Amino acid sequence: MSKLVKPLSGEGRAVLEALNRHRGGMTDAEFFRKHIEPAGISSSVWSRLNRDIYTGDTPKKELALRGVLNTLEANAQAVAVLPNGARRFIETPRFTAICRAIETCAERLDKKRGVSFFAATGGGKTATCRQLMHRFERRRDVFPGGVVLVESTESCKTYKGSLENFARAVGIFQPWRGTDEAQASVLAACKERGRFLLINDECQYWSPHTVNFMKLIANQTQAVIFTGAEPFLWAEFEKKSWATASQWKNRQRAVFHLDELTSADVLPHIERFTASHEIAAEIARSATTFGLFDRVADVIFWMEKAGSDWTLPNVRAAIHKADQNAGLVK
To answer: 123 with 292: CB under 8 angstroms?
Structure first.
């Protein structure tokens, strides 16, 4: 006689989704070995929980998974959310404006429920996405359905790859007979959430089919959709698929660009070393030429490595060292 499946509770499914968002670039096996196995959950149980076909003591396993999630979230608050080595996220006026635009979308729930952020590599797209997740996961008054973070990769250039990526993000791991079934499953999962925030990172990898799917989600669910993309690659997409891109642009309530850094952008990152606007402006000029916030972190790294005082000549030497390390000068 077969055992009865004991499905996850609603909270348990939310915990499982949040855990899978913490995978980042790790494979499922890597994530399991590092975080799940130490909690006393076997690989077979982890697999069955993900497929929601577990027949054992589901509440006990949910409790264990909640402990893992609490640890991961505590660690995420204690360490940098920035990929460039900065110690904390700097909430700039731009980030505040992005948050307000997202809140406005949630308040109005009209057709313009998109917010976009375009920045080159080093401009803080991924950091912004992760900080938005941290900010709004706790705002159930704004998003009762929570937050879903989707990080696209090269594999998402195909519609099948994108759908599989979205499915994992919303906690669906079942096989499908085709893209129509996959699309219907993801759409149903989004509808069930009610009002929620869908954060998309690296959207320059999207295909026209994926953009059309985003429009479908906007039409048939209460999702507020944030997209972060590399501007030059997105511009290439717009050239090739101008009609699709134009329709998506019409759904945006606000579009933000980071094309250059100013001394005001740099000062919060170096305030523990210097309050010099001249030095901040010098770093900003270099960062605008190459690297944006990654270049700011590089200059700080070379200054600390040299143990130098924060004078303008020393900062210029650190910028030169960063240029050499990037292969820009000899």
So the answer is: yes
